[in-house]
């Protein structure tokens, strides 16, 4: 960090050179954007970016010349570099707006032992330094003071407006720094979302992840955490629409599987091979990926898969029991009823399930004859009573000859 120990609002900083490198490179002094005023030479700012990227080390003049003039034969590269550094110093002196010559403190580029280096003793504010400092401090405080860590994370993440020096995306020397800040950003978002999740602040968790997904739309873990925040708030329709948008985005923009996990999920959703099964273990193997909670909620099989996985994740996290149940409409002898009779019985069962189960339960018509239900927050004994109650209500209201209802339940893996 510079000698300016902390700058809460870079826009409010006076008499300090403000340098923004993430998302869009620009340099300000007070209210003046000097990187635009003095954009006479692309190489001037490329040189400055080079010094910023390697600000913690002396850079030999020969290395700089090889970077700025690769594979080019010029008569006097040392003279050209010296001239370019001189021009950069003049620009960084804000066109003489401070008055007088450039003293040691105000000289942002200094020459030592045949090498150049960015002067970290000068008065400046650099977004990457502040971003890194805030995120690392937040990480160190997460265990002892989670609320302060949350505030620091939010402040630090607000500085990340995009990739480091995006205009130099094809320069090899930028790659390492760009990857570092990108990794720090993703880890900080995930760490912050975990803190918010532990504190039960799902609304802020949703907001943080929604903003992060604007920057990183192809990061699967961000999508999973975002869906968990929605689930905890009971935003089922948004869960389903977001998931469908993710699958569409990955396919449209990448033309390939968006990720191994999401690809597996998409393939399962597209599968039409859903047969009647009395083996809930087999059904659990077929289900997979993502979560939800709250509401006598009737959904389609693709959404149920999503909610099943998320309930499974939450059960593992909290150590709470969640049960999967099945109700199957059949004729005696395990026979499937004729189509008309089957549809009448299924319609009756659907109505009974919606009216009998709690608002926190989730139901789905899994195939022609079978409904699956997710029952969170109940003991095994309570689940047995719930399953029995559904069966009894169905039997009382069922006026279709020959129909029997088979039921089964099983705890999700914790």
3D architecture notes:
With 414 residues, this protein is of the alpha+beta class. It has helices at 34-37, 42-53, 61-68, 77-92, 127-141, 146-157, 172-198, 202-215, 220-232, 236-254, 260-270, 280-286, 301-318, 339-356, 380-397; strands at residues 17-20, 26-29, 32-33, 59-60, 109-112, 115-118, 124-126, 297-299, 322-330, 362-365, 370-376, 404-411. It folds into two domains: 1-213, Orthogonal Bundle (Arc Repressor Mutant, subunit A); 274-411, Reverse transcriptase/Diguanylate cyclase domain (Alpha-Beta Plaits, 2-Layer Sandwich), CATH 3.30.70.270. The strands form three sheets. A five-stranded mixed beta sheet has the order 8-10-11-9-12, sandwiched between helices. The longest helix is centred in the middle third of the chain and has 27 residues, at 172-198. It starts with 16 loop residues before the first strand and ends with a strand. 33% of the residues are buried. The model is unreliable at 1-9, 94-105, 263-275 and 288-295 (pLDDT under 50).
């Amino acid at each position: 960090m510079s000698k300016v120990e902390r700058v809460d609002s870079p826009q409010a900083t006076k008499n300090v050179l403000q340098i923004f490198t993430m998302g869009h490179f620009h340099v300000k002094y007070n209210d003046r954007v000097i990187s635009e005023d003095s954009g006479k030479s692309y190489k001037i700012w490329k040189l400055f970016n080079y010094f910023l990227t390697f600000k913690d080390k002396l850079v030999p003049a020969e290395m700089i010349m090889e970077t700025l003039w690769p594979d080019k034969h010029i008569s006097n590269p040392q003279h050209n570099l010296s001239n370019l550094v001189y021009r950069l110093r003049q620009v960084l002196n804000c066109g003489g707006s401070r008055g007088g010559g450039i003293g040691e403190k105000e000289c942002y580029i200094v020459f030592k032992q045949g090498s150049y280096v960015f002067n970290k003793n000068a008065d400046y504010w650099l977004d990457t330094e502040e971003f890194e400092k805030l995120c690392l401090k937040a990480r160190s405080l997460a265990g002892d003071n989670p609320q302060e860590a949350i505030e620091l994370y939010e402040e630090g993440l607000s500085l990340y407006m995009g990739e480091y020096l995006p205009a130099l995306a094809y320069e090899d020397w930028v790659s390492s720094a760009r990857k570092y800040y990108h990794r720090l950003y993703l880890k900080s978002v995930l760490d912050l979302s975990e803190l918010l999740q532990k504190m039960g602040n799902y609304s802020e968790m949703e907001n943080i992840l929604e903003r992060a997904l604007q920057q990183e739309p192809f990061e699967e873990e961000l999508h999973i955490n975002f869906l968990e925040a929605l689930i905890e708030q009971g935003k089922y329709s948004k869960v389903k629409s977001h998931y469908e948008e993710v699958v569409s985005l990955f396919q449209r923009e990448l033309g390939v599987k968006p990720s191994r996990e999401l690809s597996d999920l998409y393939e399962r959703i597209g599968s039409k091979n859903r047969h009647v099964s009395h083996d809930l273990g087999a059904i659990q193997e077929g289900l997979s990926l993502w979560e939800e909670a709250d509401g006598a909620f009737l959904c389609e099989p693709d959404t149920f898969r999503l909610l099943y996985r998320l309930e499974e994740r939450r059960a593992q996290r909290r150590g709470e029991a969640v049960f999967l149940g099945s109700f199957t409409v059949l004729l005696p002898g395990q026979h499937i009823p004729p189509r008309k009779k089957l549809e009448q019985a299924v319609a009756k069962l659907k109505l009974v399930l919606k009216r009998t189960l709690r608002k926190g339960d989730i139901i789905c018509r899994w195939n022609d004859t079978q409904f699956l239900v997710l029952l969170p927050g109940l003991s095994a004994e309570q689940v047995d009573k719930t399953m029995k109650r559904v069966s009894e209500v169905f039997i009382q209201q069922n006026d279709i000859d020959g129909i029997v209802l088979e039921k089964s339940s099983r705890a999700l893996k914790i």
